[in-house]
Amino acid sequence: MSYDYQIAVIGGGSGGLTVAAGAASFGASVALIERKSELGGDCLHYGCMPSKAMIEAAREVHQAGLYSDFSESDYDRLFTGAMERVADAVKDVQNHDSKDRFIKLGIDIYEAEAQFIDEHTLQVGEETISAKRFVIATGSSPVVPPIEGIDSIDYLTNESIFSLRKRPTSLGVIGGGIIGSELAQAMSRLGVDVTVVEGGQQILAKEDKEITELAEGLLSEEMNVITGAKVERLESTNEGVKIHYTKEGSANSLNVEKLLVATGRKANIDGLGLEQAGVETSNGSIAVDAAMRTTQRHIYAVGDCNGSMPFTHVAGMEGKIAVSNAVFGLSRKASYEKVPWVVYTGPEIYHLGLTEEEAKEQYGEKLLTFKTKLADNDRFMAERHTDGLVKVLTTNRGRIVGAHAIGEGAGEWMQEIGTVQALNKKFQAISNIIHPYPAKNNVVTQTADLYWREKLFDSSLNEALKWYVRKFR
Ligand SMILES: Cc1cc2nc3c(=O)[nH]c(=O)nc-3n(C[C@H](O)[C@H](O)[C@H](O)COP(=O)(O)OP(=O)(O)OC[C@H]3O[C@@H](n4cnc5c(N)ncnc54)[C@H](O)[C@@H]3O)c2cc1C
Ligand SMILES: NC(=O)c1ccc[n+]([C@@H]2O[C@H](COP(=O)([O-])OP(=O)(O)OC[C@H]3O[C@@H](n4cnc5c(N)ncnc54)[C@H](O)[C@@H]3O)[C@@H](O)[C@H]2O)c1
């Protein structure tokens, strides 16, 4: 049977673009279907890029604010400038993901909503196209919880917040996960009075508990954080929105000009016609095996739509695996143990592998925990950035099972541990690498040195060594 294409990719975001470019560069005939007029997906338009541009602009305003007293009108001007800068950054990166670039690779791009008609055919706008294999990479959208009154509120999500140009005086943020925490702090640094309302007992609950506690303390210095709060009702007022919530059984309310909903993500699967293609879902996402195959062997799903780990670098990793498997017929499998992430708050949070709580459960007595406070490191002391902690979890032989940090720039200097782990080296190997002094990753070496201290100096071997030195040297 002949098909129009060897591979049809649905969705032109981080996952879909990796697959389309990879498959085309290996000689496959590729169709890429994206419903928006521009490629790039959430990461470029409503996610990583605008949020990181805003975080950096806000950091600069915050820094400058340490040396001058900004008036309300200064903040109005700085806010508008920051948001225009965000839009410019997105435009610049858009050039990198331009349609032209992909057309030059030989890819046919369709600007339309794709829907399966059967297991080898898609309805693409007015046309139908057939393909031998498919990769679904349709991403995710914000979850909007069914709170009473929410439908009558003009709330913001990550899809609309970056379009603000006028500074709101106040912002309520429902949800203190990664999106809520990053955006809340940035807004606060741009002169907005921010209150985060989190349903759980802590914000950033996916992080190691000790790191979360430090983060919550530091973020609370810059904005209001209410945890353990159940939002009962939202009411539209002349000034904006009234949030009615209960905390520890008592009813409270809060007036804000704008409201951001950041309560998690749901896979974009509605209207895809998955049933016509025989593709099954699990917990609201497309079910895949480790080779990224759906319940139909010729249809793969990568990125946020498969519910694995909603990060751009994961969509990229899964996309590369789907290319190997779909183009070359291999059975490469994804592994998530060595996937780090970074929360881009100030200070940053680095997360790799198991948290201490998870690792204790898995490794019990065999778990070793090494910690260094940034306050004990020369560089962080010199720069007055002593708020923070490095925590590394290993087996008793030094195999890295988790690494966590909160600290200025932690997303960059902690990745040394991720690299060592990916190369299947032991944590103590870092002690043998000479780091320029006083580079920030010296704090990683300092932590690795604790392994040797534990093994050599806190053991009976130490007594034997001392005896040897006294007697023979
Ligand atoms: C505010 C925010 C900040 C973030 N920051 C980071 C970060 O710093 N680092 C990080 O790693 N991750 C970050 N993420 C997560 C990251 O954006 C996603 O994990 C990533 O975009 C997922 O890529 P994807 O290809 O699965 O989906 P997307 O990039 O969303 O692409 C999916 C594409 O499919 C299209 N589509 C959907 N359905 C159809 C259809 N039926 N037909 C045709 N086209 C369709 C959509 O229009 C979209 O363009 C952030 C997310 C948010 C919301
Ligand atoms: N730096 C990064 O890499 C980065 C940045 C942003 C987003 N992301 C990705 O996007 C994903 C989604 O982020 P997110 O913050 O939307 O989700 P999340 O799951 O991390 O956090 C959602 C938070 O909202 C709370 N919540 C849910 N319903 C609520 C309600 N009704 N009232 C009060 N609180 C409520 C939850 O308890 C949770 O703390 C992340 O898990 C991450 O994978 C990554």
CATH topology of the largest domain: FAD/NAD(P)-binding domain
Shape: globular
Spans of at least 5 consecutive residues whose pLDDT stays below 50 are: none
Bound molecules: flavin-adenine dinucleotide, nicotinamide-adenine-dinucleotide
CATH class of the largest domain: Alpha Beta
User: Which percent bin holds the helix content?
Assistant: 25-40%
| Alpha-carbon Rg, integer | 25 Å
Cα-to-Cα separation, first versus last residue: 81 Å
What number of structural domains do the residues give?
3
Structural class assignment: alpha/beta
The main pleated sheet reads as: 7 strands, mixed
Strand content: 15-25%
What's the helix count?
Answer: 15
Oligomeric state of the chains present here: single chain
Say how many strands there are.
23
Mean pLDDT: 97
The CATH superfamily of the largest domain is known as FAD/NAD(P)-binding domain
Second-tier CATH architecture of the largest domain: 3-Layer(bba) Sandwich
Disulfide bonds: 43-48
Pfam families: Pyr_redox_2, Pyr_redox_dim
InterPro entries: FAD/NAD-bd_sf, FAD/NAD-binding_dom, FAD/NAD-linked_Rdtase_dimer_sf, Pyr_nuc-diS_OxRdtase, Pyr_nucl-diS_OxRdtase_dimer, Pyr_OxRdtase_I_AS
Keywords: Disulfide bond, FAD, Flavoprotein, NAD, NADP, Nucleotide-binding, Oxidoreductase, Redox-active center
